[in-house]
Amino acid sequence: MGSDKKISETLEKQLKAIGQKIRLDLLKNLHLSDTPLSFSDLQKSIMLSESNSVNLTFHLNSLKEAKLIWASKEGYHITDIGKQILEKVIDIEHIINKKNKNLVIRTSKYSTEPFNIKNVKEYLMREADMDPFLADQMAKLVQKRLLETNVEYLTAPLMREYINAILLEEGLEEFRHKLTRLGIPPYDAEKLFDMNSVEPMDYIEKLGSESSEQFLLLNLLPKELADLYLSNKITLLNLNTWSLRPLSIFLNFETILNNSFQHIQDPSLDTTKSYNRALNIYYFLQGLAPFFSNNVLLYNFSSLSSYIKNNADLTIFIRIFLSLVRCLNKSFQAKHSFSLIKSKIQQASQPSIFNSILLELKDYLDKSNRTRNSFLNLMPQILIDYNSVDKNDIEPLFNPLFLKYGSPIFFDGTQSLINSDLISSSKEILSIPGEIVLDKVLINLYSIAQESNRNDSVFFEILNQRVNSVFSLYDYKKKFVERKLKNSSLWNNFLENCLTYNKNEWISRSIKSISFLGLNEAVKSHCGIELDRIDSSQKFAFKILKTMKEIITERNSLYNEKFCLSQPHQGSYLQRIEERYEESIGLDINVDNNLSLLIRKSSKLILDEKIAIHRKFSKVIDGGFLVSVNNEYSEPKKTQQLFRTILGSKLPAFNIYYN
Length: 659
Known about the structure:
Number of domains: 4
Oligomer: single chain
Distance between the termini: 103 Å
């Protein structure tokens, strides 16, 4: 009992010693300092005047008598027992603060509310998928840390950052990853805000796109698949809408015309009727375009002549319709294309659908000051079945305006119809109302060559893994798009009424394109020399494509799928990859090459040799294949001879471009 009494007396003495705020402040200052503090240092730290120095001495002596501090020549020190008692006092302060402190949170709903530990726990359970016990522990830790600060006001984003920092400190990176906030940093948002070239709607779209892309990569896709994109090993198109909608569609124009013209009693059209009819089709396409990321190909556009017999009326209708399509291409990312199948190409003096398009192209070009690229973005892509072209009467096709600004694609029959994403329809196209392309995913072959280090077996092992990763990406894409569109009445009506699809089967019936990048770079890295310079390199390139095709064929056979191997296409997505390679390894692809080309630009092969290689590759790349031929001639006769040479090669599709 005597010892208990002695302990009680000592405790009483020490409690009296710390019973004044100034003495607690002295202990806290000594505890926080790594070195002894002099009398004047302590005086300054608690902001006492010179006249109060006697009082400070009194308080220091009281703390020394209680053995909470001690003094030396260097200054004052806190004792071990002083540290322990101070920690207990701070714990008591926390208990009191829990009852009295009012930390205010400004929520994302533009209102303020007091801090509530239950909200933190519910937030962790709901958004991080954390179990209740761990969420409770973390919420208490967050509260404890906050009470140790002098913060009285936090915005909701800062509160989330504070929670995330604690999760990282506690080694809970997986949960922290789930809570990553989406959006553009304030600095970047302000920079974008001040750019004169960015219109208000572009600004809003940019901010929304950033969030959508981050949501896909951080939350929707598993980490291993997202990392393939982030490391440029696999390329996804239209990242901001990848989880929301399919890539493109082939749509039989006759299906639209049937709906638009079925109630017409008088087949003749004046300007007003042409405008109204074109406007009806425009409204239909305007409603359809937001459901696709890239391309709406209206094939069989030449069927229009069956509905409008009078050539003058036909010309008026086409020119009005093309003007409306330019508005669509300006408003939506989806580019509209027209295909002319079995449509006779006539001399310019004779009226036809082709010449009406040519006339509109010329007039629009005369009235606009646009660059070629911006012009092509607005004008529809024209596709022509070259089997309908009279080889002895092809002069209209070589109008310089048409070749340079119309940038037509020529294809071999209805089974080789190809869109501007270089994906072919999988069926005899005239027999169906349309076909949807779910997406196109590209595998970076050059990155595989870097990883495999010239080991054939390792190269093809990685290639197999990449193709299977693409299958996995498509499995996720199916789930995301179905989840987003299944309850859309507009989408379901379109499937049922225009494509005659069951809403539950359209995804399985859609085309799923697999493509590649960097074939030339991969072959040169692996074999040491380009594919157009030596047979062994060409054989290796062919083996790569054949292996991809075999894996795809096996998948289609096992699961009744519609995957296809397509050629890479030109697009803005290439810029990101090329810049990344230039920065990381100094590979300047644009000097001599391009990741999307099958044969490098500086190849010394003559045209016939290039065509032979392309024909060989086209037998494997049967899901979309296009040969781009540079026209170096200014004389029309030489251009026509070039065209006849390519026509005779019977390539699936080709275009002629000017440097």
